[in-house]
Amino acid sequence: MSIEGKIFPGEETPAQSSRLNRRHIIMGGALLAVSGLAFARTPKRRYPELNDKQFSALFPATFGDWRPNNVSELVLPPESELADKLYQHILTRTYVNPKTNAAVMFLAAYNSMQLNNVQLHRPEICYYASGFSIDRSRPVEIGLPGGDEIPARTVTATMGSRTENILYWTRIGEDFPQSWAAQRLAMTKANVEGYLADGLLLRMSVINDDRDQSVKQMTDFVTGMMAAGGPQTRRLLIGNA
Protein backbone atom coordinates (compact mmCIF):
# COMPACT_ATOMS: atom_id res chain seq x y z
CA MET A 1 0.00 0.00 0.00
CA SER A 2 1.23 3.51 -0.76
CA ILE A 3 0.22 6.89 0.69
CA GLU A 4 0.87 10.10 -1.22
CA GLY A 5 3.29 8.36 -3.61
CA LYS A 6 5.29 6.61 -0.89
CA ILE A 7 6.24 2.95 -1.45
CA PHE A 8 6.18 0.71 1.63
CA PRO A 9 8.71 -2.15 2.06
CA GLY A 10 7.70 -5.24 0.06
CA GLU A 11 5.40 -3.33 -2.27
CA GLU A 12 6.11 -3.57 -6.02
CA THR A 13 6.79 -0.46 -8.00
CA PRO A 14 4.92 -0.04 -11.31
CA ALA A 15 8.14 -0.89 -13.20
CA GLN A 16 8.65 -4.05 -11.13
CA SER A 17 5.04 -5.08 -11.63
CA SER A 18 5.41 -4.63 -15.37
CA ARG A 19 8.56 -6.79 -15.42
CA LEU A 20 6.81 -9.49 -13.38
CA ASN A 21 3.84 -9.49 -15.73
CA ARG A 22 6.14 -9.84 -18.72
CA ARG A 23 8.02 -12.63 -16.93
CA HIS A 24 4.77 -14.47 -16.19
CA ILE A 25 3.69 -14.15 -19.80
CA ILE A 26 7.02 -15.51 -21.04
CA MET A 27 7.00 -18.36 -18.52
CA GLY A 28 3.40 -19.20 -19.33
CA GLY A 29 4.16 -19.23 -23.02
CA ALA A 30 7.15 -21.49 -22.47
CA LEU A 31 5.06 -23.91 -20.42
CA LEU A 32 2.39 -23.98 -23.11
CA ALA A 33 5.05 -24.64 -25.74
CA VAL A 34 6.50 -27.52 -23.70
CA SER A 35 3.02 -28.94 -23.12
CA GLY A 36 2.25 -28.68 -26.82
CA LEU A 37 5.52 -30.38 -27.72
CA ALA A 38 4.87 -33.18 -25.23
CA PHE A 39 1.40 -33.69 -26.68
CA ALA A 40 2.77 -33.66 -30.20
CA ARG A 41 5.43 -36.21 -29.26
CA THR A 42 2.96 -38.55 -27.57
CA PRO A 43 2.94 -41.59 -29.86
CA LYS A 44 -0.24 -41.82 -31.91
CA ARG A 45 -1.83 -44.97 -33.28
CA ARG A 46 -0.63 -45.33 -36.85
CA TYR A 47 -2.63 -48.30 -38.03
CA PRO A 48 -6.40 -48.75 -37.69
CA GLU A 49 -7.82 -51.73 -35.87
CA LEU A 50 -9.17 -54.62 -37.92
CA ASN A 51 -12.07 -56.82 -36.92
CA ASP A 52 -11.76 -60.59 -37.14
CA LYS A 53 -13.55 -60.78 -40.49
CA GLN A 54 -11.34 -58.12 -42.08
CA PHE A 55 -8.19 -59.78 -40.76
CA SER A 56 -9.17 -63.25 -41.94
CA ALA A 57 -10.09 -61.94 -45.40
CA LEU A 58 -6.50 -60.77 -45.94
CA PHE A 59 -5.34 -64.40 -46.11
CA PRO A 60 -6.90 -66.32 -49.01
CA ALA A 61 -8.04 -69.78 -47.97
CA THR A 62 -7.44 -71.10 -51.50
CA PHE A 63 -4.74 -69.96 -53.91
CA GLY A 64 -2.66 -71.65 -56.59
CA ASP A 65 -2.55 -75.35 -55.79
CA TRP A 66 -3.04 -74.80 -52.07
CA ARG A 67 -6.23 -75.82 -50.30
CA PRO A 68 -7.28 -75.62 -46.62
CA ASN A 69 -7.23 -78.79 -44.55
CA ASN A 70 -9.27 -79.31 -41.38
CA VAL A 71 -6.57 -81.49 -39.79
CA SER A 72 -3.97 -79.42 -37.95
CA GLU A 73 -0.96 -80.09 -35.75
CA LEU A 74 -0.17 -76.43 -35.18
CA VAL A 75 1.84 -75.48 -32.12
CA LEU A 76 0.09 -72.46 -30.60
CA PRO A 77 1.22 -69.76 -28.14
CA PRO A 78 0.70 -70.76 -24.48
CA GLU A 79 -2.80 -70.00 -23.23
CA SER A 80 -2.43 -67.42 -20.50
CA GLU A 81 -3.49 -63.93 -19.56
CA LEU A 82 -0.26 -62.63 -21.11
CA ALA A 83 -0.89 -64.47 -24.38
CA ASP A 84 -4.36 -62.91 -24.53
CA LYS A 85 -2.77 -59.45 -24.35
CA LEU A 86 -0.21 -60.13 -27.06
CA TYR A 87 -2.52 -60.24 -30.04
CA GLN A 88 -5.81 -58.83 -31.23
CA HIS A 89 -5.99 -61.51 -33.91
CA ILE A 90 -4.57 -65.01 -34.31
CA LEU A 91 -5.33 -66.85 -37.54
CA THR A 92 -4.31 -70.51 -37.87
CA ARG A 93 -4.72 -72.75 -40.90
CA THR A 94 -3.19 -75.83 -42.44
CA TYR A 95 -2.81 -75.78 -46.22
CA VAL A 96 -2.23 -78.81 -48.41
CA ASN A 97 -1.11 -79.14 -52.01
CA PRO A 98 -2.79 -82.22 -53.56
CA LYS A 99 -0.32 -82.24 -56.46
CA THR A 100 2.75 -82.61 -54.24
CA ASN A 101 1.17 -83.94 -51.02
CA ALA A 102 2.91 -81.06 -49.21
CA ALA A 103 1.38 -79.46 -46.12
CA VAL A 104 2.17 -76.08 -44.59
CA MET A 105 0.97 -75.08 -41.14
CA PHE A 106 0.32 -71.35 -41.06
CA LEU A 107 -0.10 -68.83 -38.25
CA ALA A 108 -0.55 -65.06 -38.45
CA ALA A 109 -0.79 -63.08 -35.22
CA TYR A 110 -1.40 -59.35 -35.25
CA ASN A 111 -1.80 -56.35 -32.99
CA SER A 112 -2.47 -52.87 -34.38
CA MET A 113 -0.60 -51.28 -31.47
CA GLN A 114 2.56 -52.69 -29.90
CA LEU A 115 3.66 -51.51 -26.45
CA ASN A 116 7.10 -51.91 -24.91
CA ASN A 117 5.76 -54.13 -22.13
CA VAL A 118 3.79 -56.39 -24.48
CA GLN A 119 5.91 -57.91 -27.22
CA LEU A 120 5.32 -60.45 -29.95
CA HIS A 121 5.78 -64.03 -28.82
CA ARG A 122 8.61 -65.54 -30.83
CA PRO A 123 8.09 -69.18 -31.93
CA GLU A 124 11.12 -70.53 -30.08
CA ILE A 125 9.24 -69.83 -26.85
CA CYS A 126 6.02 -71.50 -28.02
CA TYR A 127 7.74 -74.66 -29.24
CA TYR A 128 9.93 -74.99 -26.18
CA ALA A 129 6.89 -74.54 -23.92
CA SER A 130 5.15 -77.32 -25.90
CA GLY A 131 7.94 -79.81 -25.21
CA PHE A 132 10.11 -79.37 -28.32
CA SER A 133 13.84 -78.98 -28.26
CA ILE A 134 15.15 -76.08 -30.33
CA ASP A 135 17.97 -77.52 -32.41
CA ARG A 136 18.59 -74.55 -34.66
CA SER A 137 17.56 -70.90 -34.84
CA ARG A 138 19.26 -68.70 -37.39
CA PRO A 139 18.58 -65.42 -39.22
CA VAL A 140 17.90 -65.66 -42.94
CA GLU A 141 16.99 -63.28 -45.75
CA ILE A 142 13.90 -64.32 -47.71
CA GLY A 143 13.92 -63.14 -51.32
CA LEU A 144 10.58 -61.97 -52.70
CA PRO A 145 9.52 -61.13 -56.26
CA GLY A 146 10.58 -57.63 -57.20
CA GLY A 147 13.88 -57.84 -55.34
CA ASP A 148 12.61 -57.34 -51.79
CA GLU A 149 14.38 -59.24 -49.02
CA ILE A 150 12.67 -59.91 -45.72
CA PRO A 151 14.81 -60.49 -42.62
CA ALA A 152 13.40 -63.68 -41.11
CA ARG A 153 14.47 -66.65 -39.01
CA THR A 154 14.55 -70.38 -39.60
CA VAL A 155 14.09 -72.72 -36.66
CA THR A 156 14.36 -76.48 -36.43
CA ALA A 157 12.45 -78.01 -33.52
CA THR A 158 12.19 -81.67 -32.61
CA MET A 159 10.10 -83.75 -30.28
CA GLY A 160 10.57 -87.50 -30.44
CA SER A 161 10.50 -88.58 -34.08
CA ARG A 162 8.91 -85.33 -35.25
CA THR A 163 11.17 -82.74 -36.87
CA GLU A 164 9.54 -79.45 -37.73
CA ASN A 165 11.18 -76.75 -39.80
CA ILE A 166 9.83 -73.28 -39.14
CA LEU A 167 10.15 -70.08 -41.12
CA TYR A 168 8.95 -66.87 -39.51
CA TRP A 169 9.36 -63.15 -39.36
CA THR A 170 8.17 -60.37 -37.11
CA ARG A 171 7.28 -56.93 -38.37
CA ILE A 172 7.18 -53.97 -35.98
CA GLY A 173 6.02 -50.97 -37.99
CA GLU A 174 8.48 -50.89 -40.87
CA ASP A 175 11.20 -52.95 -39.16
CA PHE A 176 11.82 -56.69 -39.16
CA PRO A 177 13.58 -57.49 -35.88
CA GLN A 178 15.30 -60.87 -35.74
CA SER A 179 15.83 -60.94 -31.96
CA TRP A 180 14.19 -59.80 -28.70
CA ALA A 181 16.63 -56.88 -28.41
CA ALA A 182 15.99 -55.73 -31.98
CA GLN A 183 12.26 -56.06 -31.37
CA ARG A 184 12.34 -53.71 -28.39
CA LEU A 185 14.60 -51.29 -30.31
CA ALA A 186 12.11 -51.23 -33.21
CA MET A 187 9.26 -50.26 -30.86
CA THR A 188 11.38 -47.56 -29.21
CA LYS A 189 12.35 -46.19 -32.62
CA ALA A 190 8.70 -46.00 -33.67
CA ASN A 191 7.78 -44.18 -30.44
CA VAL A 192 10.59 -41.66 -30.95
CA GLU A 193 9.29 -41.05 -34.47
CA GLY A 194 5.90 -40.28 -32.94
CA TYR A 195 3.73 -43.32 -33.56
CA LEU A 196 2.72 -46.61 -32.03
CA ALA A 197 3.81 -49.35 -34.41
CA ASP A 198 1.65 -52.31 -35.25
CA GLY A 199 3.07 -55.80 -34.78
CA LEU A 200 2.83 -58.93 -36.91
CA LEU A 201 4.15 -62.43 -36.37
CA LEU A 202 3.98 -64.57 -39.51
CA ARG A 203 4.91 -68.21 -39.05
CA MET A 204 4.94 -71.22 -41.33
CA SER A 205 6.11 -74.71 -40.53
CA VAL A 206 6.59 -78.04 -42.29
CA ILE A 207 7.10 -81.48 -40.76
CA ASN A 208 10.13 -82.54 -42.76
CA ASP A 209 13.75 -83.46 -42.01
CA ASP A 210 15.05 -81.53 -45.03
CA ARG A 211 15.51 -77.94 -43.91
CA ASP A 212 16.50 -76.45 -47.27
CA GLN A 213 13.60 -78.07 -49.07
CA SER A 214 11.22 -76.93 -46.34
CA VAL A 215 12.39 -73.30 -46.47
CA LYS A 216 12.00 -73.19 -50.26
CA GLN A 217 8.55 -74.73 -49.99
CA MET A 218 7.44 -72.19 -47.39
CA THR A 219 8.94 -69.27 -49.32
CA ASP A 220 7.04 -70.30 -52.45
CA PHE A 221 3.91 -70.72 -50.34
CA VAL A 222 3.99 -67.25 -48.78
CA THR A 223 4.89 -65.46 -52.03
CA GLY A 224 1.92 -67.21 -53.66
CA MET A 225 -0.32 -66.07 -50.81
CA MET A 226 0.83 -62.46 -51.13
CA ALA A 227 0.22 -62.49 -54.89
CA ALA A 228 -3.28 -63.90 -54.42
CA GLY A 229 -4.16 -61.61 -51.52
CA GLY A 230 -3.21 -58.39 -53.29
CA PRO A 231 -1.75 -55.08 -52.04
CA GLN A 232 -3.48 -55.10 -48.64
CA THR A 233 -2.17 -58.56 -47.81
CA ARG A 234 1.31 -57.59 -48.94
CA ARG A 235 1.14 -54.40 -46.87
CA LEU A 236 0.18 -56.34 -43.76
CA LEU A 237 2.89 -58.95 -44.23
CA ILE A 238 5.84 -56.81 -45.27
CA GLY A 239 4.86 -53.20 -44.60
CA ASN A 240 6.05 -50.70 -47.19
CA ALA A 241 9.08 -52.72 -48.23
TrEMBL record:
Q: Which InterPro entries match?
A: EpsI_type_V_pred (IPR054654), Methanolan_biosynth_EpsI (IPR014263)
Domain of life of the organism in this record? Bacteria
Q: Which Pfam families does the UniProt record give?
A: DUF3485
Start and end residues of each Methanolan biosynthesis EpsI domain: 26-228
Q: What protein does this entry describe?
A: EpsI family protein
Q: Which organism is it from?
A: Sphingobium lignivorans
